[in-house]
Amino acid sequence: MKKLTRFAAFALSAAMLVSVTGCSKNTGAGTDNTVVWYMMKPIDNIDHQKSVEEAVNKLIGEKLDAKVHFNLIDSASWDQKTKLLGATQEGVDLIMTADWTNKLTDNVKNGAFMPLDDLIKKYGQDIVKKVDKRAWDAVTFDGKIYAIPSQNPLSSPQSFVFKKELVDKYNFDYKNCKTLDDLEPFLETVKQNEPGITPLLATPGDVALPYIDNKEGVASGILYDFENDKVVTRYSEEDDIFLNYGRKLHEFYEKGYIAKDAPTKTGYTSEAKSGKYAVMHHAGSATADGSKSTSLYGFDCVESIILYPMITTRSFMSGCTAISINCKKPELAMQLLNLIWSDPEISNTIAYGVEGQDYRVVSGKGTDHIKVKANEGKKQKWAIWHNWIGPLFDQWDSNWNTKESLDEMQYNNEHADVSPINGFMFDPDPVATEVATVSSVLGEVNAVVYTGSMKDYDEYVDKVRKRLEQAGVSKIKAEVERQLADWRKRQKKD
After folding, report:
1. What's the confidence (pLDDT) of residue 492?
2. What's the rounded mean pLDDT across residues 433-458?
3. Domain 4-153+314-415 has CATH 3.40.190.10
4. How far apart are CA 40 and CA 336, in angstroms?
5. How far apart are CA 237 and CA 243, in angstroms?
6. 47, burial (CB in 10 Å: exposed 0-12, middle 13-18, buried 19+)
7. Label partner for 413 (CA 20 to 30 A): which of 24, 320, 475, 488?
8. pLDDT for 29
9. What residues does each domain of the chain span?
10. Which DSSP string corresponds to 329-344?
11. Cβ contacts of residue 367 below 8 Å, gap of 6+?
12. In Å, what is the CA distance from 478 to each residue of 29, 110, 307, 472?
């Protein structure tokens, strides 16, 4: 992959070019100037797409001879439908991609996405101005850029989330609650005094609470240890921080702080929204004022931030936009993206929808300090998250993210440490069978560990280690070490 210094030079040259996006009407696209953008539905109840697209395209049409149409796919069928697209990408111009869905690495390997270097250089100078320069390494393969990294909370704070009414009732010093040991007295108080409330929410598919770790997941069952610069195996003795975390959750389960039926529960967010839990984890992007969790869970929350994770390759890849290899109008597609990144009115209209229908202006209309209130709950018939579009930090101050929380996210991004192996992405193909087997074991095991629901913790971990070894985790580890060494050699050459 290209080093940052090489991209910095590229960025400078791009910035010096004359922008064509703001005024060009001659796109060479003929009469068919609609750019089709495939994206996962952020909410289920999308009912205002026609009116929103009309409003968006009116704004776009004032600056560029183009239109956008969102092909929004239900989250439940997204993975299947994007896989069916394969390398043909039939009918696709732009498409959402990440490390967690419609995986960028797989699509690049399959030849499904278009290299973007020339397009960015010619038409993407406003994008270049706003994308974190460190992010380009994560979307560069064999020296070519294959996606536009969105602005994201790259070092999203991890926090304990508390139901505010219970914190107030028992005068709990949540701000100084930084460890599971700090948390336990509050859990015990709730257990003894609130019969209708479960102290701690845990589900099989989601880590119950954050924990301070010094490792980065790089493959199924395999971690990179930042501090010691070595590759280690999940559940090994070298994975001591996670093991201690799991042991504590088991203690919580035995003491009744976690629901006995936690292993059978599905949907962490839906459980949290029930209001039947005193403590939960952060809602995707923690905020010191608790506003993010309050908005998501639907009741007043407060948070204690305990960790600012290191930025990794996957952080930079958490939300990206690619151009299909079969896009008939790639120049127009890039011009459209650049316009969206450069014009907050367009990006916010895409996100929030139509004024009076999907949101109302609270203050600052017509200024650079606009504040809005978006519809929520059953009234919400439109939404696209800003970081799926691209320019998160152009977002209007709102109940989604306050200006203060956005500023906090941006500060965290700028001041967080970046992984020493940023840009490294493991290719699982040489050990595909082992990866599949280990992943299957971990899926079963994590569900138990995340809920603390095993009978004997030490005995369980011993069995897990043996199962992972039988599944081939050592072979995966050796392959990660080999690929990492090769990657480092290439970095030195570049």
Report:
1. 80
2. 96
3. yes
4. 19
5. 8
6. exposed
7. 488
8. 37
9. 4-153+314-415
10. -HHHHHHHHHHHHH-H
11. none
12. 50, 25, 30, 10
The CB density around residue 205, as the number of other CB atoms within 10 Å, is 13
b/e 57-67 (16+ beta carbons within 10 angstroms → b) = bebbeebbbbb
Q: Using alpha carbons only, give the angle 125, 32, 113 rounded to the nearest 5 degrees.
A: 50
pLDDT, tens digit, 9 for 90 and up, residues 147-197: 999 999 888 778 899 999 999 999 999 999 999 999 999 999 999 999 999
For residues 136 and 4, the answer to whether their CB atoms sit within 8 Å is: yes
* Element of type H or E holding 224: strand 222-225
CB atoms under 10 Å from CB of 275, counted, come to: 14
SS (H, E, C) 38-103: EEECCCCCCCCHHHHHHHHHHHHHCCCCCEEEEEEECHHHHHHHHHHHCCCCCCCCEEEECCCCCC
Predicted confidence at residue 284, as pLDDT, reads 61
* 31-67 residue pLDDT tens: 479 999 999 999 989 999 999 999 999 999 999 999 9
Tokens of 312: 């990794």
Task: Give CA–CA dist 359/362, Å, rounded.
Answer: 9
Confidence of residue 211 (pLDDT cuts 50, 70, 90): confident
SS3 at position 278: strand
Would residue 353 be called left, alpha or beta, if left means φ above 0 and alpha means ψ between -120 and 50 degrees?
A: left
- Looking at residue 306, its amino acid is I
Provide the whole-model pTM: 0.78
β-strands 230-233, 277-281: how paired? unpaired
Phi, psi of 492 (to 5 degrees): -65, -35
